[in-house]
Specification:
- The protein is of the alpha+beta class and 1242 residues long.
- It has six domains: 73 residues; 128 residues, Calcium-transporting ATPase, cytoplasmic transduction domain A (Distorted Sandwich), CATH 2.70.150.10; 78 residues, no CATH class; 258 residues, Up-down Bundle (Calcium-transporting ATPase, transmembrane domain); 205 residues, HAD superfamily/HAD-like (Rossmann fold), CATH 3.40.50.1000; 205 residues, Calcium-transporting ATPase, cytoplasmic domain N (3-Layer(aba) Sandwich).
- The protein contains 40 helices and 33 strands.
- The strands form six sheets. A nine-stranded mixed sheet has the order 14-33-32-31-15-27-30-29-28, sandwiched between helices. Strands 17-16-26-25-24-23-22-21-20 form a nine-stranded antiparallel sheet, with helices on both faces.
- It is a multi-pass membrane protein.
Length: 1242
Amino acid sequence: MARRRIRSRIRKSHFYTFKCLRPKTLDDQGPHVINGPGYTRIVHCNQPHMHLATKLLRYRSNYVSTTRYNLLTFLPKCLYEQFHRVANFYFLVAAILSVFPLSPFNKWSMIAPLVFVVGLSMGKEALEDWRRFMQDVEVNSRKASVHRGSGEFGRRAWKKIRVGDVVRVEKDQFFPADLLLLSSSYDDGICYVETMNLDGETNLKVKRCLDATLGFERDESFQDFSGTIKCEDPNPNLYTFVGNLECDGQVYPLDPNMILLRDSKLRNTTYIYGVVVFTGHDTKVMQNSTKSPSKRSKIEKRMDYIIYTLFALLLFVSFISSLGFALMTKLLMADWWYLRPDKPESLTNPTNPLYAWVVHLFTALLLYGYLIPISLYVSIELVKVLQATFINQDLKMYDSDSGTPANARTSNLNEELGQVDTILSDKTGTLTCNQMDFLKCSIAGTSYGVRASEVELAAAKQMAMDLEEQGEEAKNTPMSKGRTQRYSKLASKTLSDDFELETVITASDDNDRKQSIGVKGFSFEDHRLMDENWLNEPNSDDILMFFRILAVCHTAIPEVDEDTGKCTYEAESPDEVAFLVAAKEFGFEFTKRTQSSVFITERFSPSGHPVDREYKILNLLDFTSKRKRMSAIIRDEEGQILLLCKGADSIIFERLSKKGKDYLGPTTKHLNEYGEAGLRTLALGYRKLDENEYSAWNNEFHKAKTSVGADRDEMLEKVSDMMEKELILVGATAVEDKLQKGVPQCIDNLAQAGLKIWVLTGDKMETAINIGYACSLLRQGMKQISISFTNVEESSQDSEVAAKENIVRQITNASQMIKIEKDPHAAFALIIDGKTLTYALKDDVKYQFLALAVDCASVICCRVSPKQKALVTRLAKEGTGKTTLAIGDGANDVGMIQEADIGVGISGVEGMQAVMASDFSIAQFRFLERLLVVHGHWCYKRIAQMICYFFYKNITFGLTLFYFEAFTGFSGQSIYNDSYLLLFNVVLTSLPVISLGVFEQDVPSDVCLQFPALYQQGPKNLFFDWYRIIGWMANGVYASIVIFTLNLGIFHVQSFRSDGQTADMNAMGTAMFTCIIWSVNVQIALTMSHFTWIQHVMIWGSIGAWYIFLALYGMLPPKLSGNIFHMLVETLAPAPIFWLTSLLVIAATTLPYLVHISYQRSVNPLDHHIIQEIKHFRIDLEDERMWKREKSKAREKTKIGFTARVDAKIRQLKGKLQRKHSVLSVMSGTSSNDTTSNSQQT
């Protein structure tokens, strides 16, 4: 049954002078000209079935997919991905060739491992894509209310919504597609939209429908509704829309303020009706996203080059072997009577050595194929899956509030986490909670609010710890105790003067802080203003005006909960809510709003009872990003007309009258202090108006507002400026944009780990700068380089060139300024907006811009579009050639998440688009530290060591085949049984290397966090550079030579049993293979730093498995076991020389590694070597001071973060101490001279 909707009586469009501007009549602005390419879309409103009749009108469905494969493409695309890997392609060719007689091995020894490896990798890809598919199903299955006909609405899944459907969206719901707003719960058809998911902005956007569709206020209104929309084709531009609506014989122009985009959310509005214009991948948010790319880590890319190197070695060895065979066939075959040279076969015909060379080349390529590790890829895949499982199950990255664990959505990039150089982060929802707390204020030149901000608190604690450490070191220096004590008080006094460490006492820890906060949005604490104590302050009249500005100057609406009776506020921005909550706590509660008045309950009065006051709203000049201020012209109960204004301090200060600057000096000082504390600030002022002045201005304002023409906006701005002058400064507010828990500490630790952090946000520049201060990406004393766009009054083409030249000039000047800076502690911050980035990202400018950004300690890009985020990320990735990580939480971050080498999505916030496009997801930004510094560091070293070891063991094994073949006249004969070849990579050496890749830890997780500089081993690539790779390869060559020569020397020229029996090829091959198994497994044991019972089982179990296999296989009938029948039990085990040879080979093959590691640890140890020795000898427990000193040394020199801020403060304090010390020295010297002269006179 159709339901009647009750509309709000407030016409909220009257609250907005600038945001709801539009033509009053159809004659004001004609319809848009819709024709030509790019403007072909036709939407039949409320008639979605009509789009099925014509092929041109069959638009995409609303189904959204982020998967890489589907049922049809999985097999071909995945097979292409697998055989795109050079090693897999080689083994495919080898498996095909093994079917022919020229193969030296059984065909199944080549086919079986290939099928196993490729099948396992494809299964992993299928599993990961299935997870993406299930997340897509969750989004596509969301329900929306859709018009079914006859004025009735019903629930329908998002994926079934079609172009032309009329949709009803309730408060706090997401828009399921791009909609044209038809009507809302407000009489004038406006609604509030939160676009944080699209552009990162926290302020709500005001949308307004056409007057022609205002009448569709109920479900049944749509029974006979129809219309046609002709508009632009799907495109990624979030802020533009061109189209016309044809309805009831009239044509109405449409603009972007009427379009509700998918994945934005309805706020502060009970309901809206809209018609679907774009669906699915045609929506603007999906147009801004890119296809999920197939990412590969830098280690995997370098691994390809190593395999190419091994291929070159394989070809070289095969060429030598074939050439040797051809020469022997040509020169010696005639003397080998047992090969019947009188009746030669084609392969051994001395007259045709070229044929022998070509055929033997294929045989050699198959024979020495074990130089290429076929199980490398599958082992790495398996290891990465297990590593990802450990990441998913890490309880220290589990968010108990939302119940969200970390999630490695792909395991291909685990080791890339350990090589990140630059982090590109979104702001809103990633760094901040979008929760504002009123914390401090400045009124009449006096600062109020004793509670410390999170930034002050953490910085003060860090400073206290650093000074304490320095004090402990000072005690152990030759400095006399008297001198130390002499200046300790001086230091304490200077410290308390410059940095309020007493704030730590106010909120000594998080528990105290939480207990003292009783009201959400209000963390203010100062008894001078609370409980009407402000009446006793010397400037109580100014304080009263300050409170009234907070309570009256806004566009919010109060809502009373019928169940609890509590009043909440619905406002465009969380800042306004914080101001209203603060006003309420101070005794000025905003209780009611009508079309023309606001009502305030003031608790203070001579009678002691609350008094309700009405303030008539004469005009509201609303806040815009261009104006950076908001004003309300009101009439109080005494009839006095006042203009109340709040805005950015730079804007308010330039509008002050000469008499209104009494508090300018102290207020500016307080604003600087608040900014340093990471707080968002606004200045408050007012102006008294007389009736004649207001009436004259209001007439001008009314004329401008009702004027017709393109210059109406400019006229309104000019008239508003006339009134917003001659203000009297009252004070300023300081609101804390609550950072997510642990964000400043996380950024500080990441900076100490040597990572660069760039912030890319769609928010305003002022907001981004405030958050920069809050996160310590910016600090007082840091030189800010602001690259800004300036309009040039020339023709469009000339202005483009001039603007570009101006930006290039600014970039060049900034780069020169950095180069000539001589202060080693100087830090620079680059701040740039999206309009300027348009030019800075041009092909001929972008590398200059990148060079400047790299030279700066921090980079903040504000007002950037999703596309620009992706372009900046691409520039950082390709321009520097280093690993980039992008982290965000909204759909506007999808582009940069996919563009970066690693994409991290924040889950548990609004929407899941960022998570669905990401490679890893975490619930809070602070977990990024553990993800990188612990898991990234471990995974990088594990994978690097694992790959190096793989090449070592395969070279060790593969070259013994070559040596034996050369020894036997390049006959193509393998010394090993086919079963040995099959087991070597798949069973006997695979488990130890997997245990290395999964469980190895150079240092424990807590030490990784205490010594963040250890992380730099990844970005510097210390464990996978060519020096280390070639070293391992050389070790493999050495081991293969030792194994072959020792076994040949021992078994070939003498009997190896007491009965005089000599070793045949199978006995020597088995003995040699045994030595290989022992050598490579002992080598991996020496490589490991961390052992659990699992490693012991896998290493020694693999060696034991070889003997068990040899014994059991030898027990099989000769028909099955062949020449291996009873090989261990009867042939080798009874011979002591077999066991002694194994011991000798183990000692000889591991000797170079032992010498190398001993020399390195003794002469040139790496950081983790030192930490391992400290932990092993428990020095960290016995000498805590030394442990602290080592930890302080483990900080990378950084110019951002708390540590940099504290270091700068300490340098400042030391300078003051030195100056005071010099003054004291002069004074003491003067005093001693006076005393001496007096004594002489006496």
